[in-house]
């Protein structure tokens, strides 16, 4: 009973965070402040971007065990439809543990690190070089996790995060 309550609470917090991230960047719209500086001197709003971006997941940390990717995604958003996430990780060898990238089908699978219905989008050997590139093609939540060691990297090492890309907006 207690674990169901904790999971439900976690789900509510995740949804609230997702909504806060998607609306927080636009908090001044109702006041006509499109620049984010307290006054409106520009003909665009804060979220105007010139086109798709390539974003390295984890920044200089890349994709590895023990880094908090949920925190990274909240601090590095917003993400937009047609942006490309780049997962960089070393192929497995004698000193490097394998990593992979799975896309989980829903919030419940994400919360529980349940990979049974997940789809592998990056094998342990695909993260080298320029990295595995994943385009956020539509306006929907994307749930990512490392699927190695039976999901232990997801559960124990915080190798999971979600993004809900925004539509690229223009305001004249």
From TrEMBL:
The keyword Signal applies. GO terms for molecular function: electron transfer activity. The keyword Signal applies. Keywords: Signal. Residues 53-167 form the Phytocyanin domain. Residues 1-24 form the signal peptide. PANTHER family: GLYCINE-RICH PROTEIN-LIKE (PTHR34052), OS06G0216700 PROTEIN (PTHR34052:SF1). This is Phytocyanin domain-containing protein.
